[in-house]
Amino acid sequence: MSEAVRQEPAHRRPHAPPLASPFLEFDLTAEVEQLHREETWKRGRNTRTLMKYDDLRVVLTALQSGTCVPLHKTDSRVSVHMLSGHIRLSAFGRTFDMLPGSLLALDPEAPHDIEALVDSAYLLTIAWPGRHRANLGTA
User: In the beta sheet, which residues pair with residue 62?
Assistant: First the structure.
């Protein structure tokens, strides 16, 4: 990850760098390889928050084959962008077969579960529209 050139005022980026800097750059292949080297990977699932702002989160997730993420939901809109492997994500009475390059967005409060059919990695993006402005006290 590259270092930030400058820091934004604390009221705009309340999370500690390097999770909330004016710019962030990642080598996703290297990030996934790092997740596979960590002790947590042995339990079937490992995650790393790459970006953490008041109105946006990006989380890299690696799942071992056969690992399931049980039914859950979030109060925010999310997207799942497949980097490698093959997962099945169930939501809205459908099953989405997700392969590298697939992108799926879900409405807030959408219950969903995930099953890794092979070792897989994806980016989970969580957006909170308007939350950032509310925190700044602007309309």
Answer: 46, 121
Question: Which pLDDT tens digit goes with each residue over 102-136?
Answer: 999 999 999 999 999 999 999 999 997 765 444 44
Q: Give me the number of domains the chain comprises.
A: 1
Global pTM reads 0.80
Provide the domain limits for residue 92. 28-131
Nearest CA-CA partner of 115 in 79, 71, 73, 76: 71
Two tokens at 72? 């859950």
Contact 57, 51 (CB under 8 A): yes
| 33-49 as b/e: b if 16+ CB within 10 A | eebeeeeebeebbbebe
Residue 6, in any domain of the structure: no
